[in-house]
Predict the structure.
Amino acid sequence: MILSLLVTPILGVIGVILSGENSSLQKKVALASSLLTFVLSLVLWAGFDSNYNGFQFVSSFPTVTTQEVVGVDASWESIKTGIKYFLIAFLVLETLLIAVFVVLDLLLFYICFESVLIPMFLIIGIWGARERKIHAAYQFFLYTLLGSLFMLLAILVIYFEVGSTDYQVLAVADISETRQRILWLGFFLSFAVKVPMIPFHIWLPEAHVEASLAGSIILAGVLLKLAGYGFLRYSIAILPDASVFFTPLVYSLAVISIIYSSFTTLRQVDLKKIIAYSSVGHMNITLLGLFSNTIQGIEGSLILMLAHGVVSPALFICVVILYDRYHTRLLKYYRGLTQHMPVWSIMFFLFTLGNIAVPLSANFVGEFMTFTGAFQQNPVLTVLGGLGMILSAAYGIWLYNRTAFGAQSRYLAPMGDINRREFMTLLPLLFLMFVMGLFPNLFLEPMHLAGRSMNTQPKH
Amino acid sequence: MSTAETWEYPEHKQFERVPTLDQVDPSDSKAIYAARNQKIRDDWVKAMEARLIKEKLDECYRTEGVNHYKSCRHLADMYLKSIKTHRVEGFRKST
């Protein structure tokens, strides 16, 4: 079943190649392939047995496949050149992203983790908007690669020590605590760049701003979660003693990242950069939950990752809707959009509320549980990290206020509200956000048994 | 696919008791996995017990009304004790 999930995008690639030069057919084939992958992932999710603590289909992550569908749909009109190669890169990226989450071998995980960089590099570097896209693509590639080299060294040490890179062997392998600490640092460098944590975060705003809409969607929706997954699946599960030892380091860096990125967001003038920096803050909140050593923290951070993976791409879509019309992302030009784009304003408002983690949204469930768990680990740092919630409200409301309200901007002529395609791209994300917020147990139930297996019992 | 009319209660799964993590041979991976799964299942069963005690306490509170301080005391004590002891902890021991 998992194999079908991996193969379907590849079949989509073949379909796109066989579509010849008909770009309309290519887009339809790519969309159909992504939709089929999404449906298959839902079938896997439905077949998941929550009462069994073991590997079944393992990680049925429907949001990976949702974002692929949304990404293909969102770039329907915006990609004008090299459509075939863009769709091929996108579908290959989909396969690799699914592979990262489903492989049970450490080395395969590393290979897929790194392989994701290549199509992403192409998507940012070729189909980005401005000249700076080359700089952003290189920065994205080199930052992640440099961090991952240390992870490769750690994997080699693990292989020579344990004799295997199979996850189920590693999960029961006994590595000494001193060695675990060194290995943990290797993994940490790689995942810290991906989260991103301060001071390894610079690639994110650049990549987000310069990438096309689909690139931003995949980056915000899925790629940032690779780090959280890596931490949970490898750092915490295979190196638990080191994870407990380094928890204060992670907490300190995460809290600094939350506060710094939130204040930096308030200073930005580019709409995409605002959302990119807000992603930094939210992903560091998930780290507080992951390293809290509590079931609430881990499940909360997983839900927050899912929620952020829905809301952040939606915000990017809202911003690019404006960009498609006015070809500027500078905040000072936008004002009074409610008057001639009321539907866009409603959608942007609802997703802003989600970003702020207002109750009824999925982010609220995630953040509440995360902070509940983190408070048990370290109350002082959690309170400081909670400032992130206040600051996210500050920049969220500030951004919405500046764009939607006030008198109509003298720089912009009315260009029409969002069209049906854009609305249909946003609607499933809105639906998901509210479903996860109102019925979180749908998503939490499968996590209960697995989440608890990651934790370390407290010293009595 | 089951409908409202055809749905039946899932069969109650019984799991064999296996040696715990303290008793198991460290070189036997399968036994370690089984012991871990057993610990997690036991933890969640205990958590469910606490939930059931809470439900009984709620029911008692509703039925007893103003007498709940005296009549439901035993359930309240049981619940207070259970939320401290019946926690989902996990199988890893911190060194």
